[in-house]
Amino acid sequence: MMFTRFAPSPTGYLHLGHAFAALTAFDAARIAGGGFLLRIEDLDSARARTAFEDAIKADLKWLGLEWEEPVLRQSQRADAYAQAIAKLDAMGVVYPCFCTRKEIAEEVARSVEAPHQIALGPEGALYPGTCRKLTKDAQRARMQSEPHALRLDVGKAAQMAGRLHFEERGAGPNGEHGAINCKPDLFGDIVLARKEMPAAYHLAVVVDDAFQGVTLVTRGNDLFAASHVQRLLQALLGLPAPAYAHHRLILDANGRKFSKRDQAVTLHSLRDAGVEPEEIRRRLDLTPPV
Ligand code: GLU
């Protein structure tokens, strides 16, 4: 049976872009006679608010969406993330990183003088790997007293996992479709967890998609690149690989993604202005499944 999901962060009101993502996931499940799941990605405790969580559910109900219970909240999943990290650690592909953001920026700036050394990823310069080179003794000593993040040694991990691909049923930003060969090192040595956060985005998504039994991940094609490293984590953790259907992004008049600051297009304000849910579907060019 097919299971899809919508996984918003409760850091603001939903806007038209979220409505498109949620309706796309819901419709895909409906058409296949499957189930639609909801996951609240509230790991960023500084920004997540339960009031937004309630507003998200109210907006989704207003749109006519129904989801399977229970709703999964990432803030309740620290043990599952810790287990996954312990498994990766036992494989020897995790290392502690003591670098601050400032130190990383300085290191990257220094290597501008030797441009062949700077690797660029979808989000800018990649972590230069400074702490990967620390000895085990140095790691242990510093872990006693210094705050640190945990990173994946992606080179080693990719070698262990061998060749991987993921199945794209929608389209990536450049029309990618079908069996996609993974480039797991696109984001470099990703952060798996931070001192104040039990799991970073990629790890939490992979662990939770498997836990919830998601078989088709539908999401915006701005996350297409993320699927490469997420597939690697699935392989390392021995989790099933869902299929993917990345979709177009809903852009504003300036061709930019809506942000949480665009109050005018929140579902909340559209509803207050008397817009009907059918009109939202029309605006998004999404016909309801029959
Ligand atoms: N929480 C993410 C977002 O709001 C979506 C995660 C995902 O679909 O993988 O963009």
Could you write a compact summary of the structure shown?
By secondary structure, the protein is α/β, with parallel strands linked by helices. It contains 10 helices and 12 strands.
Query: Helicity range of the residues?
Result: 25-40%
Number of strands: 12
The neighbouring-strand order within the major sheet is 1-2-3
Order of helices and strands: EHEHEHEHEEHEHEEEHEHEHH
Biggest beta sheet summary: 3 strands, parallel
* Weakly predicted, low-confidence segments: none
End-to-end span in angstroms? 19 Å
Comma- or semicolon-separated keywords:
290 residues; alpha/beta; three-stranded parallel beta sheet; three-stranded antiparallel beta sheet; 10 helices; 12 strands
Descriptive overview:
This protein has 290 residues and is α/β, with parallel strands linked by helices. Helices cover 38% and strands 16% of the residues. It is built from ten helices and twelve strands. The protein has a three-stranded parallel beta sheet with strand order 1-2-3, sandwiched between helices. It has a three-stranded antiparallel beta sheet with strand order 4-7-10. Strand 11 (216-220), helix 8 (224-237) and strand 12 form a beta-alpha-beta unit. Helix 7 crosses helix 8 (224-237). The longest helix has 16 residues, at 16-31. The two termini are 19 Å apart. The mean pLDDT is 94. Residues 7-9, 41, 205, 219, 223 line the site of glutamic acid.
Write the layout of secondary structure elements.
Elements (H helix, E strand, L loop, with lengths): L2 E4 L9 H16 L3 E6 L9 H13 L9 E2 L4 H13 L3 E4 L3 H10 L9 E2 L2 E2 L10 H10 L3 E4 L1 H8 L3 E4 L9 E4 L9 E3 L7 H12 L3 E5 L3 H14 L5 E5 L19 H6 L4 H7 L7
Parallel strand pairs: 1-2, 2-3, 11-12
Antiparallel strand pairs: 4-7, 5-6, 7-10, 8-9
Helix pairs in contact: 7-8
The site of glutamic acid (GLU) has 7 residues, from loops.
